[in-house]
Fold this protein.
Amino acid sequence: MTDREMDSNNPLSPYYPSETPSVPGNGRKWFAILMTAMFLLGVAYSFLLLLFQL
């Protein structure tokens, strides 16, 4: 066992607060990207659905 495993305060948490991976950018940017991706996938799904029903 390493020192890190022995000092663990919460064995269910894989990261200490200082070791939490960070994602560049802010939440609004990622929310906008997610919404845009969902919209485009919906449009593509609708197009394919109409294409194969005709």
